[in-house]
Amino acid sequence: MKHTDIAKVLRDASLMGQEVTVCGWVRTARDSAAVAFLEITDGTSFSRLQVVVDKNNLSLDPECTKCGASVRAKGIVVKAFKGDGAELNATEVTLLGKCPSEYPIQKKRTTLDFLRGIPHLRLRTNTFAAVFRVRSVAAQAVHRYFHERGYYYINTPLITASDCEGAGEMFRVTTQPWDAKYESEEAYYKDDFFGKKAGLSVSGQLEGEVAATALGRIYTFGPSFRAENSNTTRHLAEFWHIEPEIAFAELPDVLEVAEEMVKYLIRAVLSECPEEIAFFDKFMEPGLRDKLTHVAESEFGVLDYTEAIEILKKADREFKFPVEWGCDLQTEHERYITEEVFKKPVFVVNYPKEIKSFYMKQNADGKTVAAADLLVPGVGEIIGGSEREADPDKLLAAMKVRGMDLSAYEQYISLRTFGTVPHGGFGLGFERFVMYVTGMENIRDVTLFPRTVKNIM
Ligand code: 4AD
User: Fold this and answer.
1) What pTM, to 2 d.p., does this model score?
2) Domain that holds residue 417
3) What pLDDT band is residue 260 in, cutting at 50, 70 and 90?
């Protein structure tokens, strides 16, 4: 169907006085005996186009004035009555699809909670359309960032036999119905599709290391799956994960890339989505634009885990989870550090080895590993990364301490025997990043069809 994007009609001055055809959904309509004003949107821009219908010259199907109806309008682009923009003086308006009056997306603002119940329609609201435009711009910027710096884009398997994080949060993949005849788990999986226990990948990192130790610099951008029983505003069972992996790199190199990438993505969103950011600034997080501009220009903090514990212990506040060296940082701790102490993004580095994954480089102190989490105000952790353990003996020892099944990681371990190199990388949770740049407070609201505990729509 030949038509012009509303974004183009609104922005392209050369269309003034020209005849165009636009298509869209009616967001609001004012109708009188002589004239009707239809505000329509086609998703291409934050602003809507006003279509003016002179009813003395044009008969208008009353169905076209119903909120949610889809229409095609032909007409002349003219200067808007109010402001500097454009509007359309219609010469023809055709109804494409009727919409009943029970349409749930009406003019009045509806709650995010209510909209979560209608994921198939919520993108028609300003808020969700803006979130998904920002999400798309950020995703394109991810690929641009890495491509411009010579990283190769790698696709790692989604079905895997090895649990990268070793946290037992893998969804199982099986074609086997349960049958009581099996005496052991091993016998059961032997008959399964892959002949062994398989699951959905929690991270592409282990395969990413394979690629980086041949190609130098790679990144993945795909879904990861976690069967975490965490019904929080920051956890999804299926999220999108950006994971660069860099050969010949130590922890400070990894932090440098992470900081530069986050700032690059923020700048892309600020420059490509000004209307969306202005909207979020007004309705979701006052001060958002200044926050993002400031973050893109300032240096991120770096804090040793041990110092973080000291800061938390001295804090004049009761935490729900007590703080002791060796404890994992909870969201309340992360947010205190980044929101109240640093007031900007901060990397916490060198965590106790017991609370981190087996693959992280063991520091000379024998107690900590070269890990880094990036914490940001409002969200908490958005990046987890590390330098990887390059020494095969130390890696094996760490795996044995954790009682891991070494047979599932033979190839991974052998990378350390065949020309091992210092290397590292990180994972950015894409939805958490989108929350940070839009000010949306619930991860379900930056995801098209969120999958969470006891919820799949
Ligand atoms: O800290 P994580 O578990 O690190 C890894 O998976 C490493 N293998 C990454 C790497 O070094 N290549 O996860 C990385 C990030 C987190 O900081 C968070 O932003 C996001 O992934 N994430 C989730 N996002 C939404 N829902 C969940 N359940 C998430 N779990 C992790």
Assistant:
1) 0.96
2) 122-445
3) very high
